[in-house]
Amino acid sequence: MSQHASSRSPRVGFVSLGCPKALVDSERILTQLRVEGYDLVQTYDDADVVVVNTCGFIDSAVAESLDAIGEALAENGKVIVTGCLGKRADVIREAHPDVLAITGPQDYASVMQAVHTALPPAHDPFVDLVPRRAASAVDDGIGIKLTPKHYAYLKISEGCNHRCSFCIIPSMRGDLVSRPIDDVLREAEKLAMGGVKELLVVSQDTSAYGVDLRYAERTWRGSAYETRMKSLCEGLSQLGLWTRLHYVYPYPHVDDVIPLMADGKVLPYLDIPFQHASPRILKLMKRPGAVDRTLERIRNWRAMCPELTIRSTFIVGFPGETDEEFEALLDFLDEAQLDRVGAFAYSPVEGATANALPDPVPEDVKQERLARFMARQAEISALRLEAKVGTVQRCLVDAVDGDLAIARSRADAPEIDGTVQVQNGLMAGLKPGDFVDVEILGSDEHDLYGEALIEEMAG
Hints:
By secondary structure, the protein is α/β, with parallel strands linked by helices. Helices cover 32% and strands 21% of the residues. The chain contains 13 helices and 20 strands. The strands form six sheets. It has a five-stranded parallel sheet, with helices on both faces. A five-stranded mixed barrel has the order 16-17-18-20-19. α12 packs parallel to α13. The longest helix is centred in the C-terminal third of the chain and has 24 residues.
């Protein structure tokens, strides 16, 4: 390293790919890098080494991760790989033998060790005995966030106890390991103090939170809370934030959180990956398969909390899926009337047991079914959003774009759901992180349009 380079702090570039759970891993690594005196830079040219946090869940994500590693190598030359694809080091080494080090998901210590080897931290005898501040001007104990200031992902556990036949996450991230509830609530409290207005609770299976700890009781703010989903919601409701639940399995005890939604303690929003509606396909997927009970549960949830928004994901073209089973899936959409839906054509994932199932669906049939599925859901979504025209929706502003404020209602998670375009956002003086009541004047298949009720604005 040159004399000039050694006189400044070592610089690290960072590329973060994958799901919100991987994003939280990235935030923790970046925070540790800052604590140890590394500067974080935005370009390959400015970096002394580049860390790539990869995704390895489906083939397209593997390809994207390998492309990102290749780009970092071409542009910088010194690359450390971490994240889910790190569990398949042979795949990475075969494509990119020159990477400096490979570590798996959540292995923060190994990532830091690799960075230390490639780029030793600068030694400053005047400050090395003093903890460094977080990236923000105020040391709030939160560290670096990759989301906007007003919302944050709150990861409550790692790993998963399910063995869905299409999924390799347990082989990458291991069995369920829940964080003790007081740890989670303390982190949420710090995020609230740092200006966060919305918490997005994420895990591989939020409904199973605490089962590995036998729902151990811990104390927070002088009260006892069990390490389980309902207690978590009760604790988070004390912070006065929007709390949104993601990745919830449709178990009977989900019923316990619906009254909290009806009472306004957590957002009336459930992200439940149903995946299919054919009992036989669900059995092949190794998923819960009582479809009639699922529909009954949805009806009961909506009876308890009429404002409930349900988002889900589905896989079409799973091995062995017949025309009749696909039609049953469309019938389920008509019955369930879900608000937000994502879908994927089945894609083989290396290491997934579903690859060995007979009767794979031809690619052209998968794509035709996917198009039909999304067209059917678009009709449902358009009608459900049209029903909101004329109502007033409480919204959280994400951005201001010209005259418009781009906001989200309680029914909209960031990145994956729709938005509420506030036509008079600039005139209303709206800023990211503001809450505002919006009169809904129009809708389409995904988004709502309206105007801020200026006299009732709240920050």
